[in-house]
Amino acid sequence: MAQVTTPADRAREGFAGAFGYASLGVAWAPGRVNLIGEHTDYNDGFVLPMAIERGVSVAFAPRTDVRLRAHALAFGETRDLAIAELAPQRGGHWFGYVAGMVWALRRAGLSIGGLDVAIAGDVPIGAGLASSAAVEIAVARAACAATSIAWNARAMARLGQQAENEFVGVSCGIMDQLASAACEEGHALLVDCRSLETRLVPIPSKASLVVMDTGVRRSLVGSEYNDRRAACERAVQAVRAMTPDVHALRDVDAALLERARGAMDEVAYRRALHVVHEIRRPLEMADALNAGDLSEAGRLMDASHASLRDLYDVSSPALDAIVEIARAHPACFGARLTGAGFGGCAVALVASSGVEEFRQHVGGSTFSSRPAAGAHLLE
Ligand code: GLA
């Protein structure tokens, strides 16, 4: 029987091949699928992601000098740089996520020294499953282990977000990095993105999450994502002119938004209308999951998809089609696009007893995952 090699094995082998000696340890961080609460994190709202069993492994060893060497198995490339020379590099090259994380750790005053890392993963890249956050958080886990710094999931998620915002140039929220750093097995993570308070939400065993990949790839480095964020900020400015204590769309309800409608452009209004309703859905979905009410959970997912499609304009014909096909199967409670949108993956809530039939019905590239644990060291 053929031996299955895990990303951790490949990272270890890649490390030895690239650097000529054995790594000291391996850190792992998961990708995530967001169940609901899309484009709400950067509006100080709620999100409900869960970590998936697919992730990124980083084989690592400290160096005695202050250089960063990184080898990416997916690209067959090695980069070597003096850490003092790390400077923001826009463009979404894989090394930007590695270098950006080390840059953010050092800027926060953590005494990260030289590091060799080799990176291998099984999260599809650019598919809306937070592969870049998995790289950042696995690198952070490795860097902390290599320099004996205690692991703090929240702090590391913040630094990962800073790396992506300021080094890579994507104005992403905190969801992906926090999910990758702080999720726990068997649970989704309800996050208040304003306070960073979290609550674990158990996924009932009769429910399964199936990820359905459209195969369409996109990069958040493109302007669409940052455009959505800018539209939300325009809406906040317009509301704040009337009601000064509004700091984010979190502080705006549907009635207030209507009152301010005339003071903003139509695009900003439609984006904000999505957000003010979507912000509540993670709380409602957490209640539905706690009560075992999968029909209600599915209904919320369907409503989220419609809003992302019609108001936020981040769906695509392929995403709409896959969601329709999913819903046509009797085992499916609801389905929606997941992550930023513009391509990538959709997620369906499916009766566990019907998962195999459901996946055959949908066809193409699908997988189901139990909720996984956040970043940790392997071995
Ligand atoms: C990307 C970003 C997240 C979040 C989602 C949309 O995954 O990295 O911060 O904004 O898009 O919900």
Question: What's this model, at a glance?
Answer:
This protein has 379 residues and is an alpha+beta fold.
**Ends apart, CA distance between termini:** 24 Å
Q: How many E strands?
A: 13
Unreliable stretches: none
Rg, alpha carbons: 21 Å
Strand residues, percent = 15-25%
Read across the widest sheet, the strand sequence of neighbours is 5-4-6-3-1-13
Element order: H for helix, E for strand: HEEEEEHEHHHEEEHHHHHHEEHEE
Mean pLDDT: 96
Bound molecules: alpha-D-galactopyranose
Which structural class fits the helix and strand makeup? alpha+beta
Q: Largest sheet, described in full?
A: 6 strands, mixed
Coarse shape: globular
**Count, helices:** 12
Give helix % range: 40-55%
Notes on the structure:
The chain has 379 residues and is α+β, with helices and mostly antiparallel strands. It is built from 12 helices and 13 strands. Strands 5-4-6-3-1-13 form a 6-stranded mixed sheet. The chain has a 4-stranded antiparallel sheet with strand order 10-11-9-12. The two termini are 24 Å apart. Bound molecules: alpha-D-galactopyranose. Residues 38-39, 41-42, 130, 172-173, 175-176, 339-340 line the site of alpha-D-galactopyranose (GLA).
Task: Describe the secondary structure blueprint for this structure.
Layout lengths: L6 H13 L5 E10 L11 E2 L1 E14 L4 E6 L4 E6 L11 H14 L7 E7 L9 H16 L6 H16 L6 H8 L4 E6 L5 E5 L4 E7 L9 H20 L11 H7 L5 H13 L2 H10 L3 H17 L6 H11 L4 E6 L7 E7 L3 H8 L2 E5 L6 E2 L2
Parallel strand pairs: 4-6
Antiparallel strand pairs: 1-3, 1-13, 2-7, 3-6, 4-5, 7-8, 9-11, 9-12, 10-11
This protein binds alpha-D-galactopyranose.
